[in-house]
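Our platform keeps sequence and structure together, in a single record for each protein. Such a record has a labelled line for the sequence and another for the backbone structure tokens. Nothing more is needed to write down the fold, since each code stands for a local backbone conformation. For reference, a complete record is included directly beneath this paragraph:
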Amino acid sequence: MPRNQFDEGELFETRNCLESAGARVVVLSQNGQEAVGMKKARFQPQGMIIDWNKQQGITEKYHAVLLVGGKGAQKFLWNDPILPQILTDHLRAGKIIGAIGLSVLVLVRGALLHERVVSGPDSGVFLQELEACGVDHSEDPVTRHGRIITAKDADAARRFAETVAEVLLEEGGAG
């Protein structure tokens, strides 16, 4: 999640839906400190992104690595040097990766969705970045390419999380 200006709807709806499906959810940010959302909600992540594999009870890769957006995604996630490495490593290991809202550009910039169609917001800067990277924008709220799932915004968060849960079940992954 962005360390500030995260989208509360994207984070809380996705997390709640996955937890309701039985998944264990670990939320991380760049600095691991309490974050303030776009609507001023406060949220304390469980740790820092760089320490993704040092979380209590984590002994291997996660079943899914998902990014949530908000206005802070552009400032804090788009150019993060660690996220693309984590995402690529998990995808190569057969795990699910996904992003919602403005965080979809982390996948695009990391060359994980080259020449694909993605769901994401209709904002100008987002669409310009997609075009520059050779990726098309879908009007669908959620788009899936195998183990890669993208979603438009907070309104699609439940469907995003349900799609992730479905793929986990298809592949026999647990929370």
